[in-house]
Design brief:
The protein is of the alpha+beta class. The chain has 16 helices and 13 strands. Residues 2-209 form the ABC1 atypical kinase-like domain.
Amino acid sequence: MIFSEISPEPVAAASLGQVYQAKLRSNGKVVAVKVQRPGVQAAISLDIYILRFLASLARKAAKLNTDLPAVLDEWASSLFREMDYREEARNGLKFRELFGKFRDVSVPEMYMEQTRRRVLVMEWIEGEKLSEVRDQYLVEVGVYCSLSQLLEYGFYHADPHPGNLLRTVDGKLAYLDFGMMGEFRQELRDGFIEACLHLVNRDFDALAKDFVTLGLLPPTAQKGEVTKALTGVFENAVNRGVQNISFGDLSGNLGRTMYKFKFQIPSYFSLVIRSLAVLEGIAISFNPNYKVLGSSYPWIARKVLTDNSPKLRSTLQALLCKDGTFQIDRLESLLSESLRARTEQSLVRNQQEDVDSARYAIKQVLSFTLTDQGAFVKDLLLQEIAKGIDALGVATLSSATSAAASRLPFADGPSPLTSLDDEDVTNLRNLYRLLLLLSKVSQKENSSPVCTIFNRSQLSAFFIHLCGRGKNLG
């Protein structure tokens, strides 16, 4: 006998079976035993056959671009894999190995020796459904963990509905049911990150190319027309700020507006969308203002600033230096967002640990952007600082010359801006903003380099004097 005790009746219902509570005879541990219902495979096979027939008819009748039968096949493939509980147990082992050590995440242990094709034995987890407890913190944990699943490891839980997410008795987020898992290839992960960056930075030309890369649009789509359409779909939402962008609303608007360009949802993407939409839905149920994209973007900003993959390096370089012009606004935005990111180190409830995590975050970003790993960013910064110093030299010389001339008899007192052109003023403005960025980071690091000798008001007064009154440095 495998079990010394087992509940006479099911304690819960699973999608394909019933769950019993039992105790292992070998070690006395309490386990969950999931038993598949008889005849499930035959019944589901018939259902899928009928649904596939109806999907083909619906696609033809409605003239849909999305290949509904292919989307159904992707879902059915996951469902049939889910029917083999040995596969689910292997998924659970992999998920526990990758994410079980995350702070405040709990993944049950799988008992492979006791598991069979129609019987799964796993650790029993006590807790309440996440949807029934008002815990915003655990939702943030879930978002961070999901982003790591999707974009870091490419192995993600594709069925995070409320019944599969628990708040444990010790306050952790527990994942259950590993039958439906998805895989996200590296090139698609990079494409998804690029699309988010281009969306938030209003680079709709690049976003149109991302849609082709992700398979949302065919390569034959007219890029100019697509860019106009994407601008119409996204611009108002982006103008309200990334924290106000609703993932669900954007998905719906996108399908309606982009239909004429043969916009489609690739089969692989349907599970990704479902996973993110379910998370947003859980959060909205007790926080109507929650936006999963707003919580995700700081993580994405941190990722693109610290990842050393050639693809993301190229993306960052193109983002910061568009048409040969340094985009300091984008650098400021990326840095400020990256410092808001929730990471494994910053997923903490204690305030002092939050402070330590902020310092860790700053070090992580600086260790990449200001060392050989992030040489391309460092080179851009050095080039801009050099340009600013050149302009600073011109402005200082002009100011000194003007001051000397004003002491001469009959001097008219020439303007300090006489030797500065628009490019010089732009370079001075960028230098000022870069010094403020470095000052802000240095203050959070509790260090005192040269750029922190002057505070913001002193820096501002100094540069306004050099550039002339009325010049906007911000």
